[in-house]
Amino acid sequence: MAKRVLMSGNIAAAEGAILAGCHAFFGYPITPQNDLLEHMSRRLPPLGRIFVQTESELSAINMVLGASAAGFRAMTSTSGPGFSLQQEGISYMAGMELPAVIVDVMRAGPGLGSIGGAQGDYFQATKGGGHGDYRVLTLAPASAQEMMDLTMLAFELADKYRNPVVVLADGFLGQAMEPVAMREPVAELPGKPWAITGARGRPKNVLNSLELEPADLEPRMQALVQKFEMMRQNEVRYESLDLDDASMAIVAYGSASRSAMTAVHMARQEGLRVGLLRPISLFPFPYQALSDLAQRVDDFLVAELSFGQLVEDVRWAVGPNHRVELVNRLAGVRLSAEEILEAIRKMAR
Amino acid sequence: MAQTKAAKSDTILFAAPQSLEDVPLHYCPGCGHGIVHRLIAEVVDKLGIADRTVCVASVGCSAINYLYFKFDGLESSHGRAPASASGIKRCRPDLIPFTYQGDGDLAAIGTAEIVHACARGENITVFFINNAIYGMTGGQMAPTTLVGMHSTSTPGGRNPALAGYPIKVCEMLSTLEGPAYIARVSIYNPAQVRRAKQAIELAFRTQLAGLGLALVEVLSPCPVGWGVEPVQAMDWLVEHMLPQYPLGEYKVTEAVQALKEVKGHA
Description:
CATH superfamily of the largest domain in chain A: Thiamin diphosphate (ThDP)-binding fold, Pyr/PP domains
CATH class of the largest domain in chain A: Alpha Beta
CATH topology of chain B: Rossmann fold
Strand order of the largest sheet of chain B: 2-1-3-4-8-7-9
CATH architecture of the largest domain in chain A: 3-Layer(aba) Sandwich
Largest sheet of chain B: 7 strands, mixed
Number of strands of chain B: 9
Radius of gyration of chain B: 18 Å
Structural class of chain B: alpha/beta
Shape of chain A: globular
Shape of chain B: globular
Number of strands of chain A: 16
Oligomer: heterodimer
CATH class of chain B: Alpha Beta
Number of domains of chain A: 2
Helix content of chain A: 40-55%
Structural class of chain A: alpha/beta
Largest interface: A-B, 41 and 39 residues
CATH topology of the largest domain in chain A: Rossmann fold
Strand content of chain B: 15-25%
CATH superfamily of chain B: Thiamin diphosphate (ThDP)-binding fold, Pyr/PP domains
Largest sheet of chain A: 8 strands, mixed
Distance between the termini of chain B: 30 Å
């Protein structure tokens, strides 16, 4: 049995990155992800790997871009305001087809907002976020264990698709301490013949997103579209709880899904036939799973720590013939199981 | 190719550098980029580092200059080339990345990146082309546009009360501990072109010796942006830019000085 270690979600993500062969971390301090950056500053140099605290999140994402272009697994971590600054670099990396992992430990906002955990970066992470047509794979951990596991998966998928991958966590997940079963380090990393390694014994490699002729850019963008379609086909991930006989389904991800799980258990004790569908991949979103579920479930309750972002995707998935309601808290306030249970009772009446 | 044609004569007196692609450059007549590209290619050839060199382009007229070199190339977003080049160099110390940035890229939108790359003493090479104008977007005011100078966004001439003063990049960055070599050169006549090449070579050798960041600012003409003929642009540069941007070495660490004094080198 794997060794279990008590650690915060942020540190679990850092350790997951190290296990996944992340060679370089570039980041800027921002609450609530600081312990991830601090942990990397202690862990990476003794391993002969790279840690740089940069002057801004902009610089961090562009150092990630350089390290990735050179063929290395590289990452940054940040929170809302920094994530906004990094959209430029993420868009460039999507256009240049460069792998990268960005951990966004979401805080409340807009603006400077507050440092409490929230889920308001959902649209930004799942619908593109930066300029132009692109998507990033977005994974939503719901425990310290998944902070580790999904960060490892993020590196794998980033290389597989040559595309940035966002691990969309939040302040609650980042800070909470939980036991984590340690994983084995990734033994072999994929080859990257496209990387910038010096034009020795091969034609030069150029990594760019620019095509001055629209006729040259369109096929490149079509290829990106096909790649995003492949992600939709292959990378949908979700977890189901108590849905077999359910007449009502809660949809929640990340730390909100933890309260939702408790609420489901409490509701079941009251004889309410409630289950939970927890999206693990937010892009691609489990539209089909929800659409299938809508064949046999009447009502949907969306629990999220934002003012109604996830709920839009759920409404889209289940169509107009179902009741879809929202239970949420904002601004870094915790959404309790009791509040979700009350919403379940109200909807069941 | 130029080399093939030249090879027909008995003695090759002049040929295109090996590291330069044999393709037409897109630059306007009288632009300085072509000269600087050639100098970089000549130095890379001389040092024998083409298989390790990486051109990190920027945003502006030279955004696609990786198409003109035979070594590896990387695009970067506006102003961030020093960060991307640092990312490469930190992971692959054996590679020789250089950034190639205009005045808008380096001295406006990218000031944070260049200042902190200098402060950290990143072991990269920076070529900073100062033509006192935004060329690519049609001749707007640059951070280095001179006081009183006309541009498409300073129609009455740059008025410091409204638009501030030009930034002197070499002077500013040479106050930092991190950089190893900072120099300002120009290309307005053959003697200056030779000096520019010496500075470019020393900048690469600074990186090869692992001595820290080297930056060479090149005062370069933009006849179209300035609204003058190519030949007059060289005179305009001498008359107007040199007094504001004096040529010379602004920072030479002892280690770089020792490198300079190695016999047979610049």
